[in-house]
């Protein structure tokens, strides 16, 4: 993904809704748990052209991975003694690193990443 000096994507500006919609889908448990993000994008955002959809899929995959990596590092730093303060710090990190992520997705992503850190 290409970024400008301010850390913003150089790709055409997508709505916060499209990114949050796909992130929400990528974080689902149940039948859609860890489904291929490209498949989810094709189903939920068919109006996007192929190039834009591919870029969005990569962005969401990178965001999810970045959040999981950040939480795992923090989990290891605190020796698995995760507290509410750690969760709040993680949510602040998400909102700072990815300002387009809505509150619901930030909380869900941190919760899921914490679960993965806990269960290895």
Account of the 3D structure:
The N terminus is likely disordered. The protein has one domain. The chain starts with 15 loop residues before the first helix and ends with a helix. The protein contains 5 helices and no strands. With about 120 residues, the chain is mainly alpha-helical. The protein is about 65% helix and about 0% strand.
Task: Please describe the biggest sheet, giving its number of strands, its sense, and whether it closes into a barrel.
Answer: none
- Give the tally of structural domains: 1
Rounded to an integer in angstroms, the radius of gyration calculated over CA atoms is 15 Å
Helix/strand order, N-terminal first: HHHHH
What share of residues are in beta strands?
under 5%
Structural class, by secondary structure, is mainly alpha
Count of DSSP E strands?
Answer: 0
Question: DSSP helix count?
Answer: 5
The end-to-end span amounts to: 28 Å
Uncertain runs are 1-14
Q: What is the averaged pLDDT score?
A: 88
Q: What characteristic shape results from the CA principal axes?
A: elongated
Which bin fits the share of residues in helices?
55-70%
Quick structural overview:
This protein is mainly alpha-helical and 120 residues long. Helix content is 65%, strand content 0%.
Relevant terms:
mainly alpha, 5 helices, single chain, 120 residues
Write the SSE topology:
Layout: H1 16-26, H2 37-44, H3 50-77, H4 84-97, H5 103-119
Helix pairs in contact: 1-2, 1-3, 2-3, 3-5, 4-5
């Amino acid at each position: 993904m290409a970024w400008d000096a301010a850390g913003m994507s150089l790709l055409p500006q997508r709505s916060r809704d499209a990114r949050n919609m796909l992130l929400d889908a990528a974080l689902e448990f149940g039948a859609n748990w860890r489904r291929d993000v490209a498949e989810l994008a094709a189903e939920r955002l068919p109006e996007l052209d192929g190039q834009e959809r591919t870029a969005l899929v990569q962005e969401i995959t990178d965001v999810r991975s970045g959040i999981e990596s950040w939480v795992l590092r923090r989990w290891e730093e605190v020796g698995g003694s995760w507290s509410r303060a750690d969760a709040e710090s993680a949510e602040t990190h998400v909102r700072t690193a990815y300002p387009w992520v809505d509150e619901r997705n930030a909380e869900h992503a941190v919760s899921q990443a914490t679960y993965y850190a806990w269960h290895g």
